[in-house]
Each structure stands twice: as structure tokens, then as C-alpha cells.
Amino acid sequence: MSQTTALLLPMLGMIFLTFGIMMWMLKLRYRAVLQDGLNPKYFRLYRGAKLPDYLVKVTQHFDNLLETPILFYTAIILLVALKISNPFYVTLSWLFFLSRLIHSIIHTTNNRVKHRKNIFIFSILVLIILWVKISIDIFSL
């Protein structure tokens, strides 16, 4: 497996994790409407109703997957475009993906804030290290 492929696999993992949470959220929205009586008009402006906790949790997590991971996607695309890759980048990429996967599991299940916070901070530190290393490598080209 090439270093480029090894960099792209964790990015694809993040993308499919996001799709998975998206589909779960959609399923829970149908459940809220069909089983729990949520008025479907709520989804016009996302106002006028109190969502069930199970839906709020997964919806918030989906939103979260569209925030910080953008910096990860950008880093990987930049590395591939500049043809910069090494085992350190691959390791950081997998660490980021795996930490976000664990974060997803915690956030959408037992939602223990202490554990969720710790794994989130870890993923952010990995992302910072990734961008510092990219910055160093770009300026030394």
C-alpha cells in the first residue's frame, strides 16, 4: 500500500462515519415523527418543538462531524496534492480518525461528558500536531 493510500484511508473512514451518523439521524427523525408525535413541520425552520433527547444527541453529533474534521480533510488533501507523505503523517491520520470514531461512539451512546471531552481534546491535539508538521514541511520545501 502506498503512503498516499494510507493517508486517504482514514479520511475515507471519516467520510463514511459522517454518512453513517447522517443516516442514523435520518432514521431517528422518522422515528420522532412516526412514533413520538413530532410535527414534521418542525423541520421547515427547526423551530416550534422540543426534540426527543435521542434525536438531539445524534443531530448535535452530526453537526460536530461537519466542524473540526474539515481541518483534517484539508490537511490530507493538501498532503496528497503536494505529494508529501511519511509514516508520521499516516500515524497522525489514523489517530485522528480513530479518536473521532471513539468520540462518536461515546457521544451517541452513554454520552459521558468527561470521556467525550478527553477524547475530543486528544483528537484536537493530534490535529494541531498534524498542522504544525505540515507547516514545517511546507516552509522547508
At the fold tier of CATH, the topology name is Four Helix Bundle (Hemerythrin (Met), subunit A)
Helix/strand/pairing class, anyone? mainly alpha
Order of helices and strands: HHHHHH
Number of strands: 0
What's the rounded overall pLDDT mean?
96
Please give the radius of gyration in angstroms. 18 Å
CATH class: Mainly Alpha
* Amino- and carboxy-terminal Cα gap: 25 Å
Sheet-strand content, in percent, reads: under 5%
Low-confidence stretches: none
Count of all domains: 1
Helix content: over 70%
CATH architecture: Up-down Bundle
**Biggest sheet descriptor:** none
Number of helices: 6
The CATH homologous superfamily is called: Membrane associated eicosanoid/glutathione metabolism-like domain
* Overall 3D form: elongated
